[in-house]
């Protein structure tokens, strides 16, 4: 009957019961902060990519191996725009390498072009975390729009 009145392990059990939810919400909050910070970095990457597209797409074809692809999103021009987004995303250590950059719009003077950057955010302890819905990664997408100035001259005459 002495065991029925023994309270020597009660504090330890109470500590275990209280510690688990506190730790869970701490880790979930931490993951949410990481997700929000990475979302800001993805938005900045989209902005850098659209600015790069506005500069690179109408640039001199001699800079790109005489590709004759002025105002086209292909070849080296596409690689440079993609690289502009990837360089910004290096600031986020929890982004996977498979970043997609899509450029849309009319590539002529004074029209708007839009860049959409999609990156995969790696969730830590995803099986435990409600922020990522139990998935190992979560897609983050950002769009940015910029005025496309274009080139007002013919590069062949230079």
Structure in words:
This protein is an alpha+beta fold and 158 residues long. It has one domain. Helices cover 39% and strands 19% of the residues. It has 2 helices and 3 strands; from the N terminus they run ααβββ. The model has no long low-confidence stretch (mean pLDDT 84).
List keywords for this structure.
158 residues, alpha+beta, three-stranded antiparallel β-sheet, rod-shaped
List the helices and strands and how they pair.
Blueprint: H1 10-56, H2 75-89, E1 100-105, E2 111-122, E3 137-148
Antiparallel strand pairs: 1-2, 2-3
Helix pairs in contact: 1-2
Short recap of the structure:
The chain is 39% helix and 19% strand.
The averaged pLDDT comes out at 84
H/E series, N to C? HHEEE
Largest sheet: 3 strands, antiparallel
Provide the spatial order of strands within the biggest beta sheet.
Answer: 1-2-3
The tally of structural domains comes to 1
Q: What's the N-to-C terminus distance?
A: 102 Å
Q: Judging from the principal axes of the Cα atoms, what is the shape?
A: rod-shaped
Over all CA atoms, what is the radius of gyration?
25 Å
Helix content: 25-40%
What is the SS-derived class? alpha+beta
Q: How many strand segments? A: 3
The low-pLDDT segments are none
